[in-house]
Amino acid sequence: MTDEAGPWLVVGLGNPGREYAGNRHNVGFMVADLLARRVGAKFGRHRRAVAEVAEGRLGLGGPRLVLVKPLTYMNLSGGPVAALGQFYKVPPGRVVAVHDELDIGYGQLRVKCGGGEGGHNGLRSMTKSLGTKEYVRVRFGIGRPPGRQDPADFVLSDFNAAERKELEFLVDRAADVVESVVLRGVEPTQNLYHGG
Prior knowledge:
Layout: E1 8-12, H1 27-38, E2 44-45, E3 51-57, E4 64-70, H2 78-88, E5 95-101, E6 109-113, H3 121-130, E7 136-141, H4 151-155, H5 161-184, H6 186-193
Parallel strand pairs: 1-4, 1-5, 5-7
Antiparallel strand pairs: 2-3, 3-4, 6-7
Helix pairs in contact: 1-5, 2-3, 5-6
Binding site for tRNA: 20, 73, 75, 121
Subunit structure: Monomer.
InterPro entries: Pept_tRNA_hydro (IPR001328), Pept_tRNA_hydro_CS (IPR018171), Pept_tRNA_hydro_sf (IPR036416)
């Protein structure tokens, strides 16, 4: 498979700063970091956007990935994504957002193109800045908060000890899902990964 249609923009959503690194809301950054290691790329500050970017190819001569970690906070993620989309000439259909998802159980992975934002401020910002909902989302389930905990506090808290035992495996699987979207497309990826 070649990249005749140009690169893919893979956006890990999260918040910058060490204090947020282990938060549920930062699982997108975790997946982006793993994908960068897989393609042998290092993140560096981009000159045209408030973001860190790493570039590499999926396999020898495979599709080009532009991995993005916006350095704005979550609710302003769309600006850097739109700027990089223009810079790399990537249409919204080749933009993949990797994000935490409250509405599915912990560790479940779902892929979709378009649809609502489900109250996710990073997605809301991307939709506004891109001017369309028609980009791909890789949804990493974090489940609902326990008891009466505020969802905003829940997403900004770290994964608990039980979750951390599985986290490395699940981040690895989420990176596999992103690669599958790029190599096979959304529907075949749904067929492969939506069973579990």
